[in-house]
Amino acid sequence: MISSSVPYIGHILGLLKYGTRYYRRISAKCKFPIYTLPTLNGKIYVVTSVDLVNAVNRNSKTLAFNPFIAQLGKRITGHDEATSKVVQHNLNGESGPGYVTEIHDGTVSTLSPGASLESMTRAMLAEASSYLQSLKPGEQINLFAWTKQMVTLCSTRAIYGPCNPFSQGENGLVDAFWDFDQDLNKLIIDIWPNITAPKGNRARTKLGMAFQKYFSTYDPKTSESAAMIQARHSTNTLYGLTPWNQGRLEVGVLLGILANTIPAIFYMLIHVLSDPDLLRDIRAELQATSIELSPDGQTRVLNVMTMREKCTLLHSTFQETLRIHALGSSVRYVREDILLADQYLLKKGNVVQMPMAVMHSDPSAWGPNVHEFEARRFLKTSASTKDSKTAYRPFGGGASLCPGRHFVTLEAMALVAVFVLRFDVVPVDRYGTNRGTWRIPEQKQESMATNVFPLEEDVRVEIREREGSEGVEWGFEMK
Ligand code: HEM
């Protein structure tokens, strides 16, 4: 167990100082499989070789993810000391169950393929149907701002049910989430957050209070919330967490649900919209495999499970989006001295980083066109090396591999599918004039707790009715 947070602040400042661009620069110059960077009070071991990533994954008890959940989690959500003790107790499952291991097991089992994942996806799609209905041809929108609203409403409806705070019409909750996300690094440093990160701190309080209210009247039987939230609520209740702390902890969960998902869906959408050949091929693939027409020809139904199985180009496009745009790092804490791969001594108390930005831009895994967006890269028929499987790390790996990956894959594929089937989209400039050229916006400097960083500048577009889809209704099916 980590007895003090003092060692962490040194490492945290180190993690903030180094980062995507730094790791990329160093890795381009030196080809060591692992190298060491100093921090105020120890070292960061940066792993860049695929074989060593596998070795880290195999040693998840010694090179552990959970200490970061506990330490960063407290700084991110600002829950109280009593809750912190509950979280830290038996953190790595050393002696039977503990809060974090129970939450982890509940999350993994409820987000695995099966009935609960399907019912979450169904709820998400129902929300998407009505949201897309509100988009009118001729309208001009900021694409990222629009994606934020749509994905937040769809995801939180699927996960928390109809009473989720984002659907309650409370003003500015979506903006509050992004203010919080924007100030994450400052909140993580955690020195007088009300002074050093006032906007993020206020936003965190607002979100926390909204979820406190949600949990104060929460009834698992009537909430229509996903099994994941029912499992979390049951563990929170078992460990005696107050609604205030449950609200605070949920702000951290929102990061998992939204912070990577929204930029990922935005980038997937813009890559597809901006490439006429890709757009044509994805539409054709969907049409050929996953769309059924009602007998009167007025309702087109997207069969989501068939799409997941048969739309390999759409899936490959999602994977490539994450290869190019997931740039964060998996972080592990060294709990005991360990000789990694029988060669590299990692000393207790230090930190291991596995930067996605380095793995995802390694030409030995991905080939000479590593820096290009190649939507077909992950198609089974394309050449892919053994290394690329391990080098692909948008969802992390080993014992802490992201449990939300199945949901977000279905969500991204389905939302992009219905959007491109339904609308034509053209980029416009800020005066609303048709510009005709697309630009893929740069991503902002990273945050320590997320992996797909949001964009620098939004992209304005005009929505047009797709030829042949005038007056057509769209629906989803989960066969
Ligand atoms: C594109 C979207 C997403 C990306 C890129 C992503 C990425 C990640 C990464 C890198 C980790 C840490 C894994 C590691 O270091 O080994 C993680 C953990 C986690 N993610 Fe995701 N994630 C996404 C979406 C989601 C969604 C939609 C959910 C929930 C519905 C979710 C829930 C979680 C949880 C609960 C953990 C902690 C796992 C643990 O305690 O072991 N994620 N995610």
UniProtKB/TrEMBL annotation:
Q: Which InterPro entries match?
A: CYP450_monoxygenase_sec-met, Cyt_P450, Cyt_P450_E_grp-IV, Cyt_P450_sf
Gene3D superfamilies xref list: Cytochrome P450
GO MF assignments? heme binding; iron ion binding; monooxygenase activity; oxidoreductase activity, acting on paired donors, with incorporation or reduction of molecular oxygen
**Keyword field:** Heme, Iron, Metal-binding
Q: Could you say which residues bind heme here?
A: 402
Identify the domain of life: Eukaryota
Per its UniProt record, the required cofactor names are: heme
The similarity comment for this entry is: Belongs to the cytochrome P450 family.
Instruction: Tell me the protein's name.
Output: Cytochrome P450
The species this protein was found in: Ramalina farinacea
